[in-house]
Give the backbone structure.
Amino acid sequence: MAFPSGEQETLQRKHCCLIHEFYRAASKSPDKIAIIHASPSNPSANEVRIDRELINGGNPPVYKGDRCFTFANLLASVECLSFRICSVLDGADDRYLIKPQTSGDNSNGKHPQSVQMSEASLDFIRGVCQHTDLENMYVPKIVALFMPPSVEYVVSVLSVLKCGEAFLPVDPAWPRDRILSVLDSLDAALVVTCGSSLVKSGSELVDQLDWLLECCSCPIMRFSMEASIEPHKSQSSLAWPCENERKRLFCYLIYTSGSTGKPKGVCGTEEELYPMQGEELLLFKTSISFIDHLQEFLIAALTACTLVIPPFTELKQNVFSIIDFLQAYSINRLTAVPSLMRMILPAMQSQHDIRISSSLKLLVLSGEVLPLSLWNVLSNLLPKTSILNLYGSTEVSGDCLYFDCKGLPSILEMEKLTSVPIGLPISKCSTVLIGETGNSNVGEICVRGVCVSTGYLFENAIIPLNNAKLHQNSICKCSMVECGGQIYFRTGDFAHLLSSGDLVFLGRKDRTIKVNGQRIALEELEDTLRGHNDVVDASVISQKDQGDNEFIVAFISLKEKVKSAEIVKTSIRNSMINKFPSVMVPSSYVFLESLPMSASGKVDYAQLTDSIFSISHVKDEIGDIGASNLMQIIKKAICDALMVEDVSDDDDFFMIGGNSITAAHVSHNLGIDMRLLYTFSTPAKLVISLLEKNVLNNTKFGVNDIPESTIEPDKVNRFSFPESETPDPLGSKLQGHLSLMPHERNDDQADQSKRLKVDLNKYYVLEPIDLFCGYPWNSAPMCDSFSFSRCNKVMLEGGQVVNGTWQAQLVEVSRTRTGYMQELWKVNMEACVDASPLVVFNDSDIYLFIGSHSYKFLCINAKSGFIQWETKLQGRVEGSAAIVADFSQVVVGCYDGNIYFLELLNGNICWTFHTSGEVKCQPIVHAHRGLIWCGSHDHNLYALDYRNKCCVYTLPCGGSIFGSPAIDETHGALYAASTSGRVTAISIKMFQDNLSRMFECIL
């Protein structure tokens, strides 16, 4: 890409700004692959491995299904998008711009309120951040980026930087309440979201923005690489930010948990660059809500390295898939929190593929304490890899201290440590320890330099970070509030100074913790809990298990005369899930009559901590439990992973605080495939699946000396769930007991060489069927989103109706010729059910929608039977529901005469249309027109525009309408029947101009 005249010389300036550095690096290698959107991996049954077609074995390797973008593509897209963003912020229109429905002005992002800065904020910025010319600095407009990690996200960040404004990453995986709270509190000038098909699988929320359009108070603009990489006729005339006489005060905002009870935005700058070699391959695997994600993609963009972006849905569902991408693309640099490495370590040890140890040059660990034991295993597993342990926080741009683990053996000869040191300050950064006693070697870590952010943006004001003034010659002795000298940011973390000059992390004295690398202020959780209608007061504490994993426990005092504790607990838990990322949701809830108080009248957190029950590790006890107690084995494994005292047989693992990392804990401790836990998410379901898997599949019971069973080879079930990715397919300890089933128990439990003998008259072996992997939810050919309802009518997302039907296959192979059915779950609907279910597949999720005479309409997780949400209507439900074409709303008629439009994800009522009679008819979707057709007992057929919330046509049919209308899309006709004995055919080809009745037939 050619630069405008005079700009080539400007690019030669050394490190003037991030966007210049990107243009310089990209212009040198325009044809080099900058970003690879990796295709999903396809792990085999027994291990995580590469199983895809290599179409380019060069550097970088490219596989079938990958989407590649060159640096020339990125340059062209940045030129295009930066011009569009600047134009919109200046008040111009854009064909992809959607203005807020709630806004009555055309400001297009003008701040309704100016950002305020106190004198304390100005002093802090001058002191710790070393910005002296504040008169020539401005507060940039905030552009929110609502998209998952993708090439669009990288281009959007660079485009906002070129505009001279600040970007705000907004993770689509956040709960909606948190997203709207962040956008509203910051008065974001613009939201840029991804309209590309490339990231659809990364987050289903990206393509479902109706709720954001209705609730967000700022304009939203869609951007896609497909439309922006085409060459543009004119060059962008935007000025470079570094050439502006006035400099921006910050260039990005990252939200972090706040001790005041509300999250705060950290204002980051662009002072430091990261030198690397241009031939390295990097992996973009960190969520955009974490500060560490910035270095993952900016390093690649600024040094012309290739960046590999894996499908984030796959990473979320299967943490072990990271290993596949490390192997497949020969990744050279990986940034991770220690807890993640601890999760994938067993799989890495079992495979120990030489490709990872030879290609991975640098492993950067940060965000948590690095235990000495974990470093020891990693250093032996990856002898050729340099391991760095970094320390920092969002306020210091991620990292301010580093330690090269190559020097650890020499330190261990002199010091007795349990964790790896956090090391020395990085370039242009200085640290001191402020001690409360005379010991200058122990104290709070305080930082100054270009890495420190300019403050917090909170409620239209920039507030300073917690800071202290020290003598210029102060050496870790004391803080002087009014003595002048240098200003340091007080991190709240305490450390010990070693004789080598390195620091060792000791902990904190406040109530801020880190879970899986994410900082959490417990006060924020307490403040939210106290806002619940049933809660009088709440306190939250954190504890560590034997593996040094943090877990959160909430102690709650309830109001009088509340409903049952279980119902309240579910309500509180759901409320927290709707407001916080899963890592911030408490693992356990304890109800107390009142919270314990200290003599000073404050909550006694020490007493609460002492009340926590110590949970022993399941793995140490599992060998002592027999097959009859398999349920207890599973429940203990879940308790261990979630750090809770007890779970019931029917508790859904993911609804009581489980996530992908804790799921990996459970699967590793039990030695099972983690996908089993996603499919059978309650202990009861998992017990059944493991017993059936063991008996029907008849797999080997161990990985060493346990022989195969005696079932004939031709009877082995191939209609089965894929084998475990973990090193022990069902856990050698667990399987040893599973081999001793109650129907044929061996008295010698110590003899694990006994063979399992199966009575084939009691168990049924299914022949292979290509469509499925053995369980009703595992269907490879399924598209991302579709629904089916009465008469097996199938509708794809977008409204396309599948023509044709497929007969379900049922193969009877049992010797008794007896049929085989299994009850998976059941839900009490509390009254008669007349309607047929509506089943919706949305990526990996399956939901069932059904109503009853109890006035209740439910959304049920079809895998587990767990009620996702429940909405009480004003009358009984007798008709089946339908889903609109974009899969954002569910439509159902009611006996009160209303047709309800409910949000798919939470059941909130979006719109209600009232008829003059009962509605028993199932609505039908007219996707091409964006309409819902539904009849009523008032003798009318209605055409409803659910987007604009209006009725566009009413057709009298002469009688009550019970049955659903039928649409013939090919011939543009709709047919409706009524109790009058009349069938009416309607022409809908020219619906906007004229809707005519074709003919009527009297029966």
